[in-house]
């Protein structure tokens, strides 16, 4: 079996060890069969590197790669993989924390400076949670909700049944299930068809007092419509790990709304991400060497 020649840029010791554990050989980019690109903020740097590389496969470091598409870096002549699925567990943990916050109205308690009456806390087995997105995050969250006995609904691009969901609908039927949800969790990829999908029409269909949780991308939610739904009390509250724009300006009204919690895109930090990424790289290098299917292959037509 030929050992793949792999370049890791910018260099990262843990990822290079993962490459070697998977049977790869660390080399310079110009001689590499594979590029593992570690900087999600620098599509242009990757473009320049590929101009002098003969690589056939590029591994990107995060699940959200819309910046690379927007920059025109994704060459369909190459095989591209990203970390979709690798961070499902850790991001779903954060989503679960925000769902619990909404259910128990911890937003009231963390801001309190005097003893509080019950602000309307609810048991999880009283709640219906709608998960928009049936990928790694959505599936992991559904599994976490199962022992809490929450009712789970799901919506995805295909509408294929998601494990752990009582019912799964296609995204174009989202309006049918929105009125049933006490908490709506956004966990879908950011692509042309999903950007702005949670807007004024969606908020109008939601149950009065329902909560929105977003751990996906800020641009899936129309921020102006979100503000209006919060101000009108159509929404009970919002727990947001991601926002649009991001970073959220200090003077933005979302910061001062009493029923909004913002966690500053920390559902999956670089420290938490590195080990799952290393495991994926090791498995993918081993699969590449054997001519087997890779994990996290990017569908260039769909954009993720």
Q: Characteristics of this structure?
A:
alpha/beta, Rossmann fold, five-stranded parallel beta sheet, single chain, 10 helices, 304 residues, 2 domains
Compose a concise summary of this entry.
The protein is of the alpha/beta class and 304 residues long.
State the total count of DSSP E strands: 12
Q: Tell me the count of domains.
A: 2
Overall pLDDT metric: 96
What is the ordering of alpha helices and beta strands? EHEEHEHEHHEHEEHEHEHEEH
The SS-based structural class is alpha/beta
Strand order of the largest sheet: 8-7-6-9-10-11-12
Low-confidence stretches: none
Q: Note the overall shape.
A: elongated
The CATH topology of the largest domain is Rossmann fold
Q: What's the alpha carbon Rg, rounded to whole Å? A: 21 Å
Distance between the termini: 31 Å
Q: Helix segment count? A: 10
Largest sheet: 7 strands, parallel
CATH architecture of the largest domain: 3-Layer(aba) Sandwich
CATH class division of the largest domain:
Alpha Beta
Task: Please give the share of residues in helix.
Answer: 25-40%
Relative strand content: 15-25%
CATH superfamily of the largest domain: NAD(P)-binding Rossmann-like Domain
């Amino acid at each position: 079996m030929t050992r793949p020649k792999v370049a890791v840029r910018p260099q990262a010791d843990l990822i290079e060890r993962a490459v070697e554990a998977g049977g790869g050989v660390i080399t310079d980019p110009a001689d590499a069969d594979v590029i593992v690109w570690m900087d999600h903020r620098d599509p242009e740097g990757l473009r320049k590197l590929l101009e002098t590389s003969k690589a056939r496969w590029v591994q990107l470091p995060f699940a959200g790669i819309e910046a690379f598409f927007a920059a025109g870096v994704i060459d369909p002549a190459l095989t591209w993989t990203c970390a979709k699925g690798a961070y499902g567990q850790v991001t779903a943990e954060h989503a679960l924390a925000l769902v619990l916050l909404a259910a128990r109205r911890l937003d009231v308690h963390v801001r309190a400076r005097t003893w509080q009456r019950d602000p309307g806390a609810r048991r999880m087995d009283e709640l219906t949670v709608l998960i928009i997105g049936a990928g790694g995050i959505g599936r992991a969250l559904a599994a976490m909700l199962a022992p809490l006995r929450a009712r789970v609904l799901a919506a995805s691009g295909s509408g294929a049944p998601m494990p752990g969901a009582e019912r799964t609908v296609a995204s174009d039927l989202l309006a049918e299930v929105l009125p049933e949800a006490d908490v709506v969790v956004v966990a879908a990829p950011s692509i042309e068809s999903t950007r702005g999908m949670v807007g004024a029409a969606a908020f109008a269909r939601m149950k009065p007092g329902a909560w929105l949780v977003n751990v996906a991308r800020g641009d899936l939610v129309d921020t102006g419509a979100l503000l209006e739904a919060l101000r009108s009390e159509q929404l009970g509250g919002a727990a947001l790990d991601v926002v649009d724009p991001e970073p959220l300006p200090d003077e933005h009204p979302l910061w001062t709304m009493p029923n909004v919690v913002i966690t500053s895109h920390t559902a999956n930090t670089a420290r938490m991400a590195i080990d799952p990424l290393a495991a994926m790289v090791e498995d993918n290098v081993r699969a590449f060497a054997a001519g087997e299917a890779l994990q996290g292959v990017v569908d260039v037509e769909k954009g993720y």
